[in-house]
Amino acid sequence: MRKINMFDTTLRDGEQSAGVNLNHSEKMEIARQLERLQVDIIEAGFPAASRGDFHSVKEIAETIKGSSVTGLARTNQKDIDTAWEALKYGEEPRIHIFIATSPVHMTYKLKKTPEQVVETAVESVRYAKKRFPIVQWSAEDACRTDLPFLARIVKEVIDAGADVVNIPDTVGYITPEEYGKIFNYLKENVPNIDRVKLSAHCHDDLGMAVSNSLAAIEHGADQIEGTINGIGERAGNASLEEIAVALHIRKDHYNAMTGLKLDEISRTSQLVSKLTGMLIPANKAVVGKNAFAHESGIHQDGVLKEVTTYEIISPELVGVASNSMVLGKHSGRHAFKNRMKELGYELEPDELDRVFQAFKDLADKKKEITDEDLMALMTEERAGSSSSYYEITSLQVQYGTNHIPTATITLETPDGKQIQEAGTGAGSVEAIYNTLDKMMDSPVELLDYRIQSTSGGSYSLGEVYVKIKYRGRTSNGRGTAQDVLEASAKAYVNAINRVFMQEKWNHEQQKAVSKG
Ligand SMILES: CC(=O)SCCNC(=O)CCNC(=O)[C@H](O)C(C)(C)COP(=O)(O)OP(=O)(O)OC[C@H]1O[C@@H](n2cnc3c(N)ncnc32)[C@H](O)[C@@H]1OP(=O)(O)O
Ligand SMILES: CC(C)C(=O)C(=O)O
């Protein structure tokens, strides 16, 4: 199996992402993590770009031992000398020199003829080779370069001493098939090509950076350049973690592997995201929050029966603790029952039907159902539903800073009638309770009222506890709902119902005693 070198440019091309600016200690931290990830080469920066970049490249080169460290330079002597000063005390000093070779870049940006570009490239490689044991040369915008000219300049820089030749798709223009053809063309038309390692460097402007990098591997590239999380100039670079995992999972197809410690991927990705401030899209391959989350019932059922039905990458492979079953409106009974079992609830079939229905109703209103929500639903089921003497059919509350809060409530009575009443109060909860009081045969006195949320966050359920005195008895009630006013009404009615339950129980006890 071929070994592919992983060249990480998170600290150079990745830092070229608009809005990203890493300070020295942040760069050091990322470099140490890249070393733990065991990337082969770390491009630590562009030493001539600024004093800060110079300082970081220098310290990274002098600190990192497990990966080779490089820095970028233009073809002028000043950039190369500055890179040498930054890199000379590293384990294996390596420079990365580039010059553009496409007509548009040569004509308008460099204002040089193709002959002058060849000459400059050759001179700079020769100059760099006098210092650096390893010289990488890149043909910037290679994928929009005239192929015979590309082959010619590549041959010349190899003769000048280049060790690695990089063929960048600088503007993310190429397709996988075309990129493969460029590598084939160079192998067929550059006589000394076997003297160098060939490298691929892809940008994601058309969303093809990873596919193009994989195509390059299929056509002989020995090295892949990219960044963690795919950050980089414009739409970013190829995501190194995606390429490494693709090679691992599809080794049957690519017959190539990297030396990356794959279980460091998640940690590296999180660190880069945190320090650069570039958020990882939830659906991003390999490292997104949803990459190992199963949401829909049919998938969850499949995964519970056999994980490989819907999981081609095991989360542990990339350092994620486990997959997750997100309970939401698309979940089915299997996942629901399984989660309930994990929470310690063994549900009888009819109980499962009821709680599952309550769960689905809640999931229609709430994005994600937490364990606390499920426990609250179970408490409602086991301790609440049996006491439904009065049931709230509808509740409407009007509140405004310049209006008196008013509640309108429809209740179903124990004998199946619908009764409706409206009432006001100093606040919305008081308006609800005053209205409910009016619907009862005797006064209800509120002794205690407590409210809490079932979990953190804006989507958690409101849980209300009340203590009342009604028909000479004290009673506690509990209500749970997404809206705190609904939870308050439910708790009050639940406490009233418990008084009736108590009365009924007493009555049955007395009947039993008098019979006996
Ligand atoms: C595809 C890539 O990602 S390339 C790397 C991009 N990275 C960066 O640009 C790093 C940050 N850059 C910087 O800090 C600055 O641009 C510097 C320090 C590199 C240069 O700054 P300045 O000297 O002020 O030049 P400026 O950036 O305005 O223009 C670039 C100059 O470099 C020249 N140049 C561009 N590429 C090369 C090259 N490979 N070799 C030689 N000269 C080059 C341009 O033609 C232009 O020259 P000119 O001034 O004669 O017209
Ligand atoms: C310097 C080169 C390799 C580059 O970043 C590009 O062409 O995108």
Give the tags.
three-stranded antiparallel β-sheet, eight-stranded parallel β-barrel, Double Stranded RNA Binding Domain, TIM Barrel, binds acetyl coenzyme *A, 17 helices, 516 residues, 3 domains
Characterize the structure shown.
The protein has 516 residues and is an alpha/beta fold. The protein folds into three domains: 2-276, TIM Barrel (Alpha-Beta Barrel), CATH 3.20.20.70; 293-369, no CATH class; 384-512, Alpha-isopropylmalate synthase LeuA, regulatory domain (Double Stranded RNA Binding Domain). It contains 17 helices and 17 strands. The chain has helices at 24-37, 51-63, 77-87, 103-110, 114-129, 147-160, 176-189, 209-218, 240-249, 251-254, 265-276, 297-305, 333-342, 349-365, 371-384, 428-439, 484-515, and strands spanning 2-8, 41-43, 68-73, 94-100, 134-140, 164-169, 197-202, 223-226, 256-258, 293-294, 324-325, 391-398, 406-412, 418-424, 444-453, 462-470, 473-481. An eight-stranded parallel β-barrel has the order 1-2-3-4-5-6-7-8, surrounded by seven helices. Strand 6 (164-169), helix 7 (176-189) and strand 7 (197-202) form a beta-alpha-beta unit. Helix 14 (349-365) packs across helix 15. Bound molecules: acetyl coenzyme *A and 3-methyl-2-oxobutanoic acid. Acetyl coenzyme *A is lined by residues 13, 16, 46, 48-50, 74-76, 98-99, 109-110, 140, 170, 233.
